[in-house]
# Entry
Amino acid sequence: MIYLLLSILISTGLFVIFKYFGIYKIDTLKAIFINYIVAFILGFSFAERDFSIGEIPNQPWFLGALFLGALFVSIFFVMAMTAQKNGVSVASVAGKMSVVIPVFFGVFLYNESVTLLKVVGIVIALIAVYLTSVNEGRIAAKNAGLLFPILLFFGSGTIDTLLKYIETKFVDKVDVSIFSGSLFAIAAFFAGIILIIKTIRKKEKFGFKNCIAGLILGVPNYFSIVFLIKALQTEGFESSTLFTINNVGIVIISTLVGILIFKEQFTLKNKLGVVLAILGIIIVALA
# Structure
């Protein structure tokens, strides 16, 4: 349970950091590139066994890590753009309502339990996520801005689903840090290619503040993945339950942070959503 709690808190911090990226005019791609370098160095540094870089391509999880690494870059960029253009809470709802995707696959791939209580809890949680994060004025004024939230929804759901599948089938418990570090190294590679192309075209300086932003982002990003994987490896915790609690918990905390720190509007619907979110988490946990 402690890994799940840490995952929720650290993942919420990522949304807050992205919000500050917009405030301080951080180049998101450059910061993300540095962030992945920091994260893969941490992953390899915290490895629980001796290993060589040359053995990584031969690991059974390598192809999955290759695909996930490329997806990480894409969705991290989309997450940042959603937080900046639509707000922290909208980024949260788009990313966390995607819980329906790994929950669906958890039931069919891993024969996880489907009880009436669990279904009711998940439905309540999804309604709560929407109510907690909806901002009627913002959404009505920016219909064109729905592209990033939609991409974030499907991308986040795909990442969670693949992460669970690869972790279950191919990753040993002692290899969590090596696997995570490899994910981030691959992501850094793809981000680096995009950054080189962009730099050649526009001839931009890298910028010291972008490096600092990447360093700040890299540490929580690494631990958010590690703690999520370790939570998934906890015996007796079904992924459908874990993902629901994790995602709704992030929505609640990130919404409160948006209200308290960034003064985002908090309507009656939002308040009802928080209450329902807590109720949904309790029901899913009991189920």
Remarks:
- Confidence is low (pLDDT under 50) at residues 137-144.
- The chain has one domain: 2-286.
